Each structure stands twice: as C-alpha cells, then as structure tokens.
Amino acid sequence: MDDGIEDLTGLVDRLRRDRRTHPYRGRREYSQAAADLADRCTALIDAGAAASVAPVLRRAVERMTTALMYMDDSSGVIGDDLQQIMNLYARACIAAPQNPRRLAGWLVKLECDGPGWPRIVLRDFAPALGAAGLAEVERLVADRAATADPESWTALFAVRDLREQLAEVSGDIDRHVQVLAEHLTSAVQYARIVDALRAAGRPVEAIAWARRGLAEKAGWPRADQLRDTLVALLLEQGDSEAALSVRQAEFDRHPTLEAFRAWESTAVQTSAPDPSPAAVERLRQRVAEKPLYAPELVDVLTAVGAHGEAWTVARANADRLGRHRWLDLLERRSATEPREVIEPYQNLIEEQVGDTSDKQRYRRALPLLSALQAACRATGQDDRFTAYLTDFRERHRRRPTLLKTLDAAGFRT
User: Fold this and answer.
1) Using alpha carbons only, what angle is made at residue 373 by residues 371 and 378, rounded to the nearest 5 degrees?
2) What is the pTM of this model?
3) Where are the domains positioned within the chain?
4) Helix and strand counts by DSSP (H, E) for the chain
C-alpha cells in the first residue's frame, strides 16, 4: 500500500504547472496525469485506504485549481478532470472522516477566495462534515456575508451559493424555498424552486411557483424547461385542460414552430383535438398584422403538410425567410413542382454572384446552377437552361474567375 501512495505522490507532482508555460502546451499530458491519479485513488479508496488518499486528493485539487488559472481549457476537459478529483476527495472524506471544522474552513475558502472552480457541492461533503461541520460552514458564510464587498459580484455570488446549498442540505424545504426566493433573477431560479417542491411531494406549490416564474420570466433562457415542468406537473395532477392552456398561451405569445410542436405533443398526449387549424389561423392573423411572422407561418404550414399554402406565403415573403429556409423550400418544391422553382433559382444565382462580401460567392453559385439545371430538365426545358447559361456568361464575361469556375464545373456553352 505504501508503494501505491508513493506512486500517487509522483502523479500529483505531475499536476504542478509553471505559469510561464504556454497556455496551450501540455494540456493532453496534464489531463492524462489527472485521469491516472483518479484511477489510482478510486482503486485505493475501494481497497480501504481512504485515509491515505484524502490528503493526496486535496493537494491535487489545490494544484489543479491554480494550474487552471494559467492554462487554456476552452474545451472544459481539464475542468472536468478537476471536478472528478474533487468528487473523489468528497468520497475519501466520507470514508475516512476528517476534522469537520477544518474541512468546512477549506471548502468556504475555496468557494469564496478561489477562482470559481471547482464547483463546491456541499451535498457531496455533508456526510463528512456532519452537524458540526455544517454549522461551521454556516458560521463562516455568515461572517463572509457581513464583510463581503457589495461591489464584488464574485464574493456575493459565493455567499449566495453556499447559503442556498446550506438550505438544501438542511432538509427544511420551506427554508430552501425561502433562500432561493431571495434572488429571483432568472427562470433558472424559479425552476430550482419548482424542482425542490416537486421532489418534496408538494405539487400544488410547485405549480404556483412555475406559473409565477413564467409570468415574470417568460422569454428568458431556460423558460422553456420551466414550462415543460409546469405542463408535466399539471398532467400528473390530471389537469389536461390546464396543461393545454399553457401550451396554447405560449404559442399565442410567441408563435414559433417549437411552440407549435410542444402544443401538438401535449394534445396528442392528452387525446385532445389537433391544434393545427387553430395554430395556422392564429399565424395567418399575425402575418396579416405583421408580415415579419411569415417565416413562422411557413414553418408551421410545412409541418402540418399544407405545402401549397406554405409555398404561396414563402413566394410573397421570400426576403423575410432567410437563405437557409428559402433554399430548403425550393428543394422541397422542386420535387413536386419543378416549374415553379426555375425563376427563384435564377434570382438566387444572380444574388449569390453579386454578393461581393462573400469570397466564395462563385463556388457557392454552382449548387444553385445545378439545381436550376435539374428543374429545367424535369420540365423538359433543357434549352431554357442553356439559354440562361449563355446569357449569364455573356453578362459576366469580364469576371474571368467566375468563368473559370463555371468551366471547371462543366457549365460551358
């Protein structure tokens, strides 16, 4: 076992990082050293040597935390390695109890004075901290709260995070909700409250909080997940009508294809009537009022199989659709009505070649020419394509690079 610990010491030594080293240099080898350490420590903990492993893992956490300040970890790989070492340290502390007050002090200092990594998860350390350690964390956090610089976002966030985690591990759901509710600054915070209440078997309160969150943060990031949770809760309570109302209200607020699909999915799940007619009609009204909703109408019409109307709306609003959506529609339409895509493809070719901001404009025009040629061939108008290509080359005869590109692709007259 002593040889195993000596090997760990060697691996931890590999986790030193000279700040003068180039940030991109040696990242793979560093990650491998961390992975090797994690494998060795896992085996030793399983073998009952947690007491010897714990200080080694703590030293590794400290070294990696410092090293990441001078390394490029845009991929997040080494950050994940560090988190794994931190998780192993928590496991070792549980298997071989440490001084709970000292452990509490180390965790609070790392959270409040560290660079922001690794993530401190009190839940993982709670069994090792015990009542005395958690009380010490609470005392230290209260001291930090009293002395934190009100202009320091990082200091305030660290205190807030630890207070929320302390409330969580306390097992007092009311306390947990109260602390979370002190900072209702995002949909995510509401979702955390909803999840806590749901896990505690208090669905009515969870539903109320979810509704409140959506009322106040409807368009915020992660609001969709909060809405999905609300719908799931309502369905669990047997309130299908309310669940459908949530979906319809979101579509009325923001009539996108995603909102329609969510509404449609819930309708299928509850055996409710197909919402497609209502959704399409609502979007028609929106487009009549504000044509900028035309892309959403095209998307929904396509989704419900109303390809004819989708094409009509798209032709009338081609400039609003965006290139990718318009190309997708042209490709779909060419399979059934190739005659109707000939002129639009010609317009796209002219726009592409004239786009001087695109250095690849000539090369990007080739697939469009191929699609135009295929549409002409499908309608028995090969001569029409030949005439267009002849005219096109003549109009652009002073662009030798374009002509060479066309020749190389076989578009000769």
Assistant:
1) 95
2) 0.85
3) 1-96, 339-413
4) 22, 0
